[in-house]
Design a protein that fits this description.
Blueprint lengths: L8 E6 L14 H15 L4 E6 L7 H6 L4 H25 L4 E5 L8 E2 L2 H9 L3 E5 L9 H11 L4 E6 L4 E2 L11 E2 L1 E3 H7 L6 H9 L4 E5 L5 H6 L6 E4 L1
Parallel strand pairs: 1-2, 1-6, 2-5, 3-4, 3-5, 6-10, 9-11
Antiparallel strand pairs: 7-8, 10-11
Helix pairs in contact: 1-3, 5-7, 6-7
């Protein structure tokens, strides 16, 4: 029996680092194809998929600013990095036969469409995967905040935050072996305890708009589908 999706429209948030390969490539075509095939799986379940991807594998604006670069300039460079990643993912999805559109917050018409809320929703309704690139188009905002903002704008059911660990922990599990995983956590707990999952602006946006977040491990193949079908993996964030 075919599993039914628990969500109709989602925003999948990916970090730029998930595109890196084990050989140290900035963008590893094999990793990109793997992620694209997992997205294809849920797309074939008639789930409307919007993607927001970071640019940390190419350039980190915040890190550059800490080393003396003008923060606004550094952040705009980071936004351009997200466009590069988005085009790579679009190429992989299109090669799998998944119709995909890249919409950018900063206009670059030769490469992608400008982000317009109604246009993004229309693409989703027509069964296209939409990749939302270029952050919010403003410096000082992360791609986590972009994911929260866009999810609210397009009336997504949930944000799926893909990470390299199994969910949200009391501490970094790579550093502290005694760190315990939360199965469920409230937005306010994340803010009060400063849990490192998404920045405070993104969490506050989700809290104010009652938008649930699921944090899960992308490195375990098939986890995206498990989350979509309502299986209890990762950490669920709600009120």
């Amino acid at each position: 029996m075919k599993a039914k999706p628990a969500y109709k429209r989602i925003v999948l948030k990916l970090s730029g680092e998930v595109l890196e390969g084990r050989q140290g490539h900035v963008i590893d075509p094999e990793e990109v194809r793997s992620i694209a095939s997992q997205i294809q799986e849920i797309h074939e379940m008639d789930v409307q998929v919007a993607l927001v991807i970071g640019g940390g594998n190419i350039f980190r604006g915040h890190a550059a600013a800490e080393q003396g670069m003008d923060r606004s300039t550094a952040d705009y460079m980071g936004m351009l990095a997200t466009v590069i990643n988005s085009l790579a993912l679009q190429d992989a999805l299109e090669k799998l036969g998944v119709h995909t559109r890249v919409l950018t917050a900063i206009e670059m018409r030769q490469l992608a469409e400008p982000y317009i809320r109604r246009r993004a929703i229309r693409h989703l309704e027509k069964g296209r995967v939409v990749i939302l690139a270029g952050g919010t188009g403003n410096p000082y905002f992360t791609t986590d905040t972009t994911a929260a903002l866009r999810a609210i704008e397009i009336n997504a059911d949930v944000i799926l935050k893909a990470t390299k660990v199994d969910g949200i922990f009391t501490a970094d599990p790579k550093i502290d072996p005694k760190a315990k995983k939360y199965d469920k956590v409230r937005y306010i707990q994340i803010l009060k305890k400063r849990l490192k999952v998404m920045d405070a602006t993104a969490i506050s946006l989700c809290m104010d708009n009652k938008l649930p977040i699921i944090v899960f491990n992308l490195l375990q193949r098939g986890n995206i589908k498990k989350v979509i079908t309502g299986q209890k993996i990762g950490t669920h964030v709600a009120a």
